[in-house]
Amino acid sequence: MIVEMRIYHCAPTRLPALLDRFTSTTLGFFEKYGIEQIGFWTTLIGPSNHALTYMLKWESLAEREQKWNAFQADPEWMAKRAATEADKPIVERIENHFLAPTAFSALR
Question: Which of 14, 61, 101, 106 might form a disulfide with 10, Cβ 3.0–4.6 angstroms?
Answer without folding.
Answer: 14
